[in-house]
Amino acid sequence: MVLNYILTGSFFFLVLASQICSKDVADVGNRNAPDSLRLNPGFNIHKVVETSKKLPSRSWEFGTESEALLELYNPELSIHGNNPSGKDVYKPDQVKALVYAKEKIVIGTGANALSDDRKYANAAKDQVEYVYGGAPRWFNGAISHRVDHPALWADFIYMAPPYLAYCGVVENNATTLREAVDQISLYHDVLRMNVTTNATGVPPTNHKAVGKGSWEDIIDINPNASDSGLWSTGNGWAAAGAMRVLATVIKAPKNFTDGFRQDAITRVSSIIRDILDAAIRMPRADNNLLRNYLDDPSWFGEISGSSVLASTAVRLATFGQEIGLTPNEAYRYAEFAQNIRLTLGNGKHISASGTAFPAINPLDWNDRIEFTQGSPEDNAFIGLLFAAWRDCVQANTPGCWRYGTHHLRRSLFISYLFLLSLFTTNRSVDPEWVYAVYCYFYYVIRDRWEQNFEGIHY
């Protein structure tokens, strides 16, 4: 009888091991892929990226895709990387993001300075001067997202403040960097959600305390153009943009940010955390994704907002020490992102061609029909999530696992419990034998794992 239990347990353990080693490792992808894309997120990141480059057709889509390509292929040059100031000389054709952006940029003037063949640097300067000095402003000084009249969109925080912050550092202009930080606070003051106490009210006109910290989507001088809903993608735009500004402040020379560095880090990180904490508290849709409008149960769960908020959570966890997060707090944000990433890898949300779904219609976020033909924002945000997760893993941040590592540990633990149950039901089984068998298979699988990852350790 004992022999039967032993054989059954060993067989069960080997089945689990073979599933791990065949499925997760086999999904690693193209062995000829660049090192920056070698990790396995649980889905085919190569297909997602290739599809992502084909989907954009509008300026903000091109911009988001360019940022995703920079973080994916040249992470050292992104604001989250080791060389964001670009001290090393790169030829434009060596940077995929620059190659892509150059194909899409149309240079003009004023509001459309990057939209004659003048120097790119001059056009960039024109763009900063317009945003900083020419664009309409809200009553509190917040720069308008719209050109023709004052209107504040959560999206703006991803589009303009990171650009102002980076230009401020590059041009040695602390005033511009501070303006980027202040814009996040000014937008926060206007768009942050007001908690209502109307027990019978429903979103978007009423919001419960669970959403505290979230941002409303749009405030316009024309009330009919406003959107007081807690749009998940809008909150993602805001959090991800603020995260890029936060990273810029942290990586800027300390003598350059004397007098406002700590205040800026505290203010911006607090706003990001408020948005993420609200998203983490929100009940998920049946597909384990965040709803299009976070606190409205009538909406479906969708990819765009879920992915960009997850990418921000990973980035925040990676910067945990710099912003004063406890290990448990950093782990909580990383775990939220891991959950979203594993959901993307469950085989139900990314097609064989690399198209992610369901998304919200990028041009009509009130469209109740799930968008499945490919959203430019959707795919780009998954690229940002992959890049953030990869950097988090490489930084050994608590809560960031490789795709298979989590399954390896879980399967080993389940197998250990199974073997332990043999001892509890059959006292004749030596507990030291149970432990020895467990350790033997653990090291066998670990060695197999590391061989398949070609030296990459977990």
Automatic annotation (TrEMBL):
GO molecular function: hydrolase activity
GO aspect biological process, one term: carbohydrate metabolic process
Keywords: Hydrolase, Signal
Organism superkingdom: Eukaryota
Pfam families from the UniProt entry: Glyco_hydro_88
SUPFAM superfamilies assigned: Six-hairpin glycosidases
Keyword Transmembrane in record: no
Secretion signal span: 1-17
Protein name in UniProt: Uncharacterized protein
Taxonomic path: Eukaryota, Fungi, Dikarya, Basidiomycota, Agaricomycotina
